[in-house]
Amino acid sequence: MALVAALRRLSHASLGFYSWRAAAATPTFGAWITGQRSFTVGSQPLRSDKVTVHFINRDGDKITVKGSPGESLLDVVINEDLDIDGFGACEGTLACSTCHLIFEDDVFKKLGRITDEEMDMLDLAYGLTDTSRLGCQVCLSKSLDGLVAKVPESVADARQSQDG
Ligand code: FES
Fold it and tell me: Can you give the residue ranges of the 2Fe-2S ferredoxin-type domain (predicted)?
C-alpha cells in the first residue's frame, strides 16, 4: 500500500495533467501495479472487414449493404433497416420461416451446416428450393463477401399456419 500511495503522490506531483487512472489504465504501468496484463479489444470491425451482401427483394430490386462477420442475415436486415416485407417476424427464434432466402449454388455450399430445427422450419417456408436457408441462421464470414440472397416471391409465417 505504501508503494501505491507513493506512486499516487508522484503521479500528482510530477505528472500533473497525467491522471492516476490514466496511468493505471495503460497496459505497461497498469500491469506493473496490478500484476495483471491488460489489452484493448476493438469492438467495431475495420471497414475493410465488412462483408458485402446483395439482397434481391420480392419486386426484383437489388439492395446492397454491408454487414460484419458473425452477424446473421437477419441482423443485417434489421441493422440496415431494410424494407423486406414480413422478414424476420419471430426475430430469429426459429418459429416463423419468414426469413427464408434463396442462394446461388456456390454460396449455398459455403454456408454452415443446417440444423434439424432449421430444416423443420424450412419445410414450412413458401417456395422452398434446394438452396434455401433461413436468414436468421446464416452468419456472415469474409468468405461470403459479395453473396446474393434472393427473397422469395411470397412469405409464409409458420406461426400462422400452425395456428390454422
Ligand atoms: S426469423 Fe423466424 S425463423 Fe428466422
Answer: 51-155
